[in-house]
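For practice. Supply one:
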Amino acid sequence: MGRDCGWTEVFRHYHTFASTLLDRLYIFAGQGQRLDIRIQGLKVLDSYAQSGRGCLLVGAHLGSFEIARAVGALGSGYRIKALVYGEGTPRIAGVYKKLNPSLFEDIIYMGDTGSLFGLDEHARQGGIIALLGDRSVSACKRIRCEFFGEPAWFPEAPALLSQILDMPLVLFFCLHLGDGRYEVRFEHLADPQRVSRHERGAAVQRIMQAYATRLEHYCRLAPYNWFNFYDFWQPDE
């Protein structure tokens, strides 16, 4: 917002997060029709799905990742697998899993080598892989990008997977607009970079900086939707 926030704005931020958690119950309980979900840019996703090539969907902790995943479960017929680093809220995840265990079959955890083999097969069959690009952990490869005027760590995984799997990157966000209303947005981010090994670092930097720039745009558009509740701008380590 370009200024310090007061306690009422902080409360609204947490309230928005809580609202998205409750709305996920409808999705996992098979009651997605209770939500008003509007979609922009779906033809971008359609073009890759119909080509049989598939794509990498790169989202963020902005709005509701699960609502966006559910687009495939709401009759669109997309084969979407979610690639995650691990669950930070196991109790909440346990509730969702009891409601709809089948949706958790499409979750692949980073670091599980066996699961990554299945991921490669999914890509070859023209499937869609979804992951978040705004959470880096010390154990993963990461890169500094400019974000709101300051350098911040972002994972290299989206750009590297695009190269390894030869899949284009499609940006997606699902913004919470209040009262069970969501707007899902898709837009082309980058094509896989066919570069030499010594050029790979620069290619990854360009892609992730493009991602950070678009994330900043959407954070400004819907500031109460960004749910990275930790010190995002960390010093060099």
